[in-house]
Inverse folding.
């Protein structure tokens, strides 16, 4: 598929142009600032001066996948709605990140799993308690 070429969506509706991460990576300055959020490409050049956190925050993420940074900040529903006006296309399927491949202890919803949050620390505390008891009882009988 050629850069910027439109793709047909599954339902027959036309999707936006498709861009590679390499193309997005070239747009990382105050003259042209693009980034990717959840597989969608946004041109935020017009928004740089208006961003409440300052243009530096956006320029740090320009030219790459900013999904994690965008979600970490906890943007409001108004900010998410505003993002729609800067949409210019989709990221090429080959450049999309594999979901869930980053951290095995974090679920797809972004929350730590039950094992790492509760069971491992509880098991560790139990082992330490038993070791303490064993050595304390052993110390008294000697």
């Amino acid at each position: 598929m050629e850069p910027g070429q439109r793709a047909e969506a599954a339902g027959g509706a036309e999707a936006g142009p498709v861009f590679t991460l390499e193309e997005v990576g070239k747009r990382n300055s105050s003259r042209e600032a693009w980034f990717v959020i959840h597989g969608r490409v946004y041109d935020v050049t017009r928004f740089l001066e208006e961003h409440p956190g300052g243009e530096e925050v956006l320029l740090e993420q320009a030219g790459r996948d900013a999904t994690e940074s965008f979600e970490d900040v906890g943007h409001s529903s108004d900010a998410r709605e505003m993002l729609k006006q800067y949409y210019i296309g989709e990221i090429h399927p080959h450049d999309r990140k594999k979901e869930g491949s980053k951290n095995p202890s974090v679920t797809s919803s972004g929350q730590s799993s039950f094992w790492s949050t509760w069971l491992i620390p509880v098991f560790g505390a139990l082992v330490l308690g038993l070791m303490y008891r064993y050595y304390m009882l052993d110390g008294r009988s000697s």
